[in-house]
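Much of the work behind modern protein science is quiet bookkeeping, done one molecule at a time. The fold becomes a row of whole numbers, each drawn from a learned catalogue of backbone shapes. The protein below has been through that process, and both of its lines are reproduced in full.
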Amino acid sequence: MGNQVIPGIGGSLCRRSGSTRLWRCCPSSVSNIRYRRIPNWLTLGGVVTGVALNSVPYQGLPGLKLSLAGRGVAFGSYMLLYLVRSMGAGDVKLMAAIGAMVGFRDWFGIFLVTALIAGVAGIALVAARGRLLRTFWDVCFILSELKQRWPAYVRNEELDVRSPKAMGLPPGAVIGAGTLVFLGTCARYGQ
């Protein structure tokens, strides 16, 4: 029961023992909401835990490869977001830790769920602050700057996640919510 693999949603690492991975999301979410930071001990501990859980007791070398591939895909994807200043470094490291814990197949599911949650929560936030039209024009500006291969944050400080003027959700909390929803769905529906 404890080490049994649950087949399904794109990956073999979504296990009944997923609660081991779930607890890592909670402290990082709380820290990100309160301090806008994710401690390195959580992210590094997550990578080590993910690699150990997937390689030693469960699957050996195939589990190690899947864990490292998950870490690499997650890190690479979020590093691109970091380079255009739409994510912080802690968010990159958190997603890399989650990728190491669940593997690249399940990480992609977590990424999609996280994107959906972020989109809905973001629209709710800008609507609550009366900034829907301004946000629409900001998105148009970002796309225009990307077309010219110029980072949007250079000409508009509010679009830099590091700026105190930036409005946004704490990404670590949204990542935690996406991970909990995805793994909870896997556990609930046996996939």
